[in-house]
Design brief:
Layout: H1 2-11, H2 16-32, H3 39-64, H4 67-99, H5 104-110, H6 116-124, H7 126-145, H8 150-159, H9 188-208, H10 213-220
C-alpha cells in the first residue's frame, strides 16, 4: 500500500497530496479485504473503498485546488474503488491458481453442493456424504472457537472421505443392514487394503479435480 501510494505521487507530477489520499484509501482496503468471505461482500467493500477514496481525494483536492477539480477527483476516486473491485474479482481465479492462494470465496465455491466431487459423493456414497457434512459442521464450529480458518476446516471435512466413492459398499455408513458387511466375504488382508486405500485414492481424486493443496493435505491427514 505504501509503495503504490508513493508511486501515485510520482505519476501525478510529484503531487504527494494524492499519495496521502491513496494511502488512506489503501488502508481502508487492508481493513476490509481480510474480512471478505463471499462475492456479495466484495461488492460492499468496493463501495466502501470507493467512498473512502472519493472523500479523501475530494477533501485534499479542495484544500489545494479549485472546487471543480475537487469534484472531478471525487468522481475519479469513487470510480477507482469500484473498478479495483471488478479487477480483483476478475483476476482472482488466475491469482489463486498461479500463486496457490486459497481465498474464502474459493473455499465457499468448493463447499457448494454443485461441485462435481460432492455430487459424486452424494450419489455413490450417501452415507459418507451425510457423515462428511456432519464432520464439516463440527470442524467449522471447533475452528471458530480457537480462532482458526473455519471455512478451510469445513471444506476439508467435506472432501476428507471422497476416496470412499471408489468402493462405497465396503464402508459401514453406506451398508444396508439386510445386506450385511462385505468384509465377511473377503480375505482380511484384502479387507484392510480396501479400507486404508481410500485415503490415497481420495488424494489422487483431489489432485485430478484440481483441489487446492490445503484440501489435499487435509485428506491425506
Amino acid at each position: 500500500v505504501i509503495s503504490s501510494s508513493i508511486f501515485v505521487g510520482f505519476l501525478t507530477g510529484y503531487n504527494f497530496s494524492y499519495t496521502v489520499a491513496a494511502l488512506l484509501g489503501g488502508l481502508i482496503s487492508v481493513y476490509v479485504v481480510p474480512r471478505l468471505s463471499e462475492i456479495a461482500e466484495l461488492t460492499k467493500a468496493s463501495f466502501l473503498v470507493g467512498s473512502g477514496l472519493a472523500f479523501f481525494t475530494f477533501t485534499i483536492s479542495l484544500l489545494t485546488t479549485t472546487l471543480s477539480i475537487a469534484l472531478i477527483n471525487l468522481a475519479v476516486g469513487f470510480t477507482n474503488g469500484v473498478y479495483s473491485a471488478v479487477l480483483a474479482l476478475g483476476s482472482l481465479p488466475f491469482l489463486e491458481r498461479h500463486f496457490g492462494i486459497v481465498t474464502p470465496m474459493r473455499l465457499l465455491e468448493l463447499t457448494t453442493p454443485s461441485h462435481p466431487l460432492l455430487k459424486r459423493l452424494k450419489e455413490t456414497a450417501p452415507g459418507t456424504h451425510n457423515h462428511s457434512i456432519a464432520v464439516g459442521n463440527l470442524s467449522e464450529a471447533a475452528a471458530e472457537a480457537v480462532g482458526e480458518n473455519s471455512l478451510l476446516a469445513r471444506a476439508g471435512a467435506y472432501y476428507h472421505d471422497i476416496g470412499k466413492t471408489k468402493r462405497p459398499g465396503f464402508f459401514v455408513e453406506n451398508q444396508k443392514a439386510a445386506e450385511g458387511s462385505k468384509h465377511k466375504t473377503i480375505n482380511p488382508h484384502l479387507s484392510c487394503l480396501v479400507i486404508t486405500s481410500h485415503v490415497k485414492e481420495g488424494v489422487d481424486m483431489a489432485q485430478e479435480y484440481g483441489l487446492p493443496k490445503e484440501i489435499t493435505d487435509l485428506i491425506g491427514q
